[in-house]
Amino acid sequence: MSTLTHGAELEALELELLLEGVRRQYGFDLRHYSRPLLLRRLRRHLREERLDTFSALQGRVLHDPEAMEGLLGALACPPEALFSDPAFLQAFRTRVVPVLRTWPSLRVWHAGCGSGEDTYALAILLMEEGLWGRCRLYASDISEGLLAEARTGVLPLPREEDVRNYQESGGRRALADYYTRDGNWAVLHPALRDGVFFTQHNLATDASFNEFQVILCRDTLLAFNRSLASRVHERLYESLSRFGFLCLGRKESVARAPHAAAYEELEDTGRVYRRSA
Fold first, then answer.
1. How far apart, in whole angstroms, are the C-alpha atoms of residue 207 and residue 68?
2. What is the average pLDDT score of the chain?
3. Which CATH class is domain 86-275?
4. Which residue has the higher pLDDT, 240 or 207?
5. 252 φ/ψ angles, rounded to the nearest 5 degrees
6. What DSSP string describes the chain?
7. pLDDT value at position 2?
8. What is the pLDDT of residue 3?
9. Which of 13, 68, 173, 225 would suit a FRET pair with 142, their CA atoms being 20 to 30 Å apart?
10. pLDDT higher for 76 or 235?
């Protein structure tokens, strides 16, 4: 056996032991995450933590809950800037918002919210469209550390590119109207921070906790293998009201989902589906 082959097999064994240890110690089952993505993010995390092996990471994680939070944060989608996908938000304004206006109340769920940038962008959009007063916006993630960061409503000061993206998304005001500046940081106004309910939720294992008219789960399914993605799709379907909207990332779809036939894709929206059955 070559040294290269032995090293790969040893790393694979260490990875299995790490994932099993995390499952037993903390209840987070990461075994069905996409292996290429999992390995890429874990190897980057090793470099950031200045560790040499998954075994060393396992020892740290099992004995230190803060290290576990760091691991979950490393596996989350990279933080986005405010209005990082203006094309999607513009399509949401023009195709989804007119329908939402016809409903007396709204429940919106952002699953896999990370540190909250996309959630707050959506909150600003809903506020501008006159829907904030009758909307309850829930945002969830597996990492309590990321949720704690999101709850602060403190983000890096928007750049010129962020302002342009806001305008391209159909923004109706100046982006600076929604925050106060504190050095290089933007502190979002209380009306936004207090109107978002951040809650810990594990898409891989936790049941649905409400029925929603809109669910955003964008670029989160890419982290899962096909079996887990199918189970998550089942959970999203159970959580979405009939005629509600499911918003996925551009590289995701419902094509292989258990209830694919129950959705209709809205044209020119970048993976926005409406549940029809």
1. 22
2. 92
3. alpha beta
4. 240
5. -115, 160
6. --HHHHHHHHHHHHHHHHHHHHHHHH----TTB-HHHHHHHHHHHHHHHT-S-HHHHHHHHHH-HHHHHHHHHHHSPPP--TTS-HHHHHHIIIIIHHHHTTSS-EEEEEES-TTSHHHHHHHHHHHHTT-GGGEEEEEEES-HHHHHHHHHTEEEPP-HHHHHHHHHTT--S-GGGGEEEETTEEEE-HHHHTTEEEEE--TTTPPP-S-EEEEEE-SSGGGB-HHHHHHHHHHHHHHEEEEEEEEE-TT--STTSTTGGGEEEPTTSSSEEEE--
7. 58
8. 61
9. 13
10. 235
Is residue 262 within 8 A of residue 243, CB to CB? The reply is no
> What torsion, rounded to 10 degrees, do the Cα atoms 253, 108, 27, 34 define?
20
Residue of 243, 248, 254 whose CA lies nearest to 88: 248
Separation in Å, CA 80 to CA 84, 207, 228 = 6, 27, 24
Confidence of residue 176 (pLDDT cuts 50, 70, 90): very high
Global pTM value: 0.87
Average pLDDT score over residue span 154-167: 94
Which sequence spans correspond to the domains of the chain?
3-75, 86-275
Average pLDDT (2-17) is: 80
Residue type present at position 119: T
Identify the CA nearest to 106 among candidates 84, 129, 87, 89. Answer: 129
Q: Which tokens belong to 146? A: 């990321």
Asked if the model's pLDDT at residue 211 lies above 80, the reply is yes
